[in-house]
Amino acid sequence: MIKQILNKLPRKSSSKSFHSDERNTELDFASSDKVAKPNSPVRSKSNIDSIPVSYEALPSFRVVLSSEKHNLFIKKLNMCCVVFDFNNPSKNIQEKEVKKQTLLELVDYVSSVTSKFNEVTIQEITKMVAANLFRALPNLNHENKLPDLYDQEDDEFSMDPSWPHLQIVYEFLLRFVASPETNAKIAKRYVDHSFVLKLLDLFDSEDQREREYLKTILHRIYGKFMVHRPFIRKAINNIFYLFIFETEKHNGIAQLLEVLGSIINGFALPLKDEHKIFLVHVLIPLHKPRILSMYHQQLVYCVCQFVEKDCKLADTVIQGLLKYWPLTNSSKEVMFLGELEEILEVTQAAEFEKFMAPLFLRIGQCLNSSHFQVAERALFLWNNEHIRNLTTQNRRVILPVIFPALEKNTRGHWNQAVQSLTLNVRKIFSDADQVTFQDCLVRYQEDETREKESITKRQSTWNRLDAMAAAKTQPTVISRLATATATATAKTQPMVISRLATATATATAATTATAMT
Fold first, then answer.
1. Strand, coil or helix: what is 47?
2. CB 382 within 8 A of CB 375
3. What domain of life does the native source organism fall in (predicted)?
4. Which of 26 and 416 is assigned the larger pLDDT?
5. What residues contact residue 370 under an 8 Å CB cut-off, 6+ apart?
6. How far is CA 99 from each of CA 78, 82, 87, 91, 510, rounded to the nearest angstrom?
7. Could you state, in order of their start, the residue ranges of all structural domains in the chain?
8. Please, are residues 359 and 322 in contact by the beta-carbon 8 Å criterion?
9. First to last CA, the chain
């Protein structure tokens, strides 16, 4: 009976159980707080992972059995997903060296593997690559710097401190993509559109070494994954559109154009409308930005590839150059003339006749440029045998257009080299067709005479107008003075007459009165 009563009474909990329950409660609250804060910062796996307590080197592939190499490869990949902070050189020195050696072993393994990569392996490879490469690029704040103040091709301009590891990861990715053991049908699930877009974002890196690796890897991806080709071209176009029409700031335009140069070289004939639209809407407007010098060589190669594949596009290209021709930038004008020479060199005679008149009107203006490098570069066009033949064959159209510019240079250009080159060009046309040359000379002299007569006539007209103005101004002053004098006289004269008459009448009356008396 007593035991039954005692059992019904509530037992006092021990201090140990109480503290354990309290600890559990606190953990529950802590976990609930983590869930309840959706805005708390969360690091994705592509960002810096937490460094494990023991970050030690794994066994080498040489000391393990062949059956264990695959599992060891996966472990090494997971180990290399850890990203270290390279902004502090004195931090994690030993761990960084361990990771570097591990990455080198992974590169050797990918290069020497003799079996196909399965889906799990490809997934782990892309995971490791994404963790190391896909990152926010540093903003070095060159917004206020003019493009001419720095050289983008200078390797010392910006050096990524993490490059010792990044370089090995890029080499690993390059060998993985180029490996014959990589099955494109499986790998395309992981090297997908998102992967390609993140890779393209890295082209804006300040480090030229990174952009060169990206260029090679993107070209290999374009060649291996045929299903991604239209998407890659479209994504590159979007980068160009943003650069041309909005920002005019991007570090990887030259490398992207190099990739496109090899892509254009492989276009099948006849060219698709999509490719012609790319020429008109992207490549030609790329001549507009101020930093053209940073990628002009690659741009010229792409444009010339189009003209070589379809000669009818020469007219489109030349009209586009004339549209974006620089008027106040002499250095860009020299580049345009250089590009013009390369385009004309691959242009056929029939296409040349379509645009020669407006083209040589612009060249004639360049011949008379006060900047000697512009005039000199324009005259150098006749050093090219193909261009010289095109101009002499069409001399009856071209010579009348440029003859005034040649004569002005011969008579009065300040630079002696320009005068000498001008005489050489005059001699080319004179030897080719003396009759046309003399006709142009006579016409130029007649035009010069008419211009002098027009100037003389205009000056005489102005002189006559000045004389008429002077003549009209002087009589007006005199007439106004005469009018004022006459008015004053008219007002004064009646008063004098009336006073005189009054005085006379008074004197007469006085005389009469005296006589009567």
1. coil
2. no
3. Eukaryota
4. 416
5. 414
6. 11, 9, 17, 14, 147
7. 44-137+158-191, 348-472
8. yes
9. 188
Other CB atoms within a 10 A radius of the CB of residue 276 amount to 16
**Phi-psi category of residue 83: left, alpha or beta, with phi > 0 → left and psi -120 to 50 → alpha:** beta
Dihedral of CA atoms 46, 47, 52, 58 in degrees, nearest 10, equals 50
Which residues does 483 contact at the CB level (< 8 Å), separation at least 6?
A: none
Distance CA 279, CA 281 (A): 6
- CA 77, distance to chain mean position in Å, is 39
Q: Are 124 and 176 in contact (CB under 8 A)?
A: no
**In this structure, what token pair is assigned to residue 274?**
């999509």
Using DSSP, how many helices (H) and how many strands (E) does the chain show?
21, 0
DSSP 3-state assignment of 219?
helix
With bands split at pLDDT 50, 70 and 90, how would you rate the model's confidence at 489? low
SS3 146: coil
Residue showing tokens 């490879």: 125
* DSSP 8-state class, residue 281: I
Structure tokens at 367: 């011949």
Specify burial of residue 162 (Cβ count, 10 A radius: 0-12, 13-18, 19+). Answer: middle
Q: Are 61 and 127 in contact (CB under 8 A)?
A: no
The answer to whether 432 touches 395, Cβ cutoff 8 Å, is yes
Residues 6+ apart with CB under 8 A from 143: 249
Tokens of 159: 């050096």
Contacts of 303 (CB under 8 A, 6+ apart): 279, 283, 284, 317, 339, 343
**pTM of the prediction?**
0.76
Over 400-436, what HEC string results? HHHHHHHHHHHHHCCCHHHHHHHHHHHHHHHHHCHHH
Q: Dig out the tokens for 44 from the structure.
A: 């994705």
pLDDT in tens, 80-116: 999 888 888 778 888 889 999 999 999 999 999 888 9
Rounded Cα distance between 122 and 87, Å, is 31
- Residue type for position 139: N
How is the chain split among helix, strand and coil, in percent rounded to 5?
75, 0, 25
> Which tokens is 223 given?
């060649």
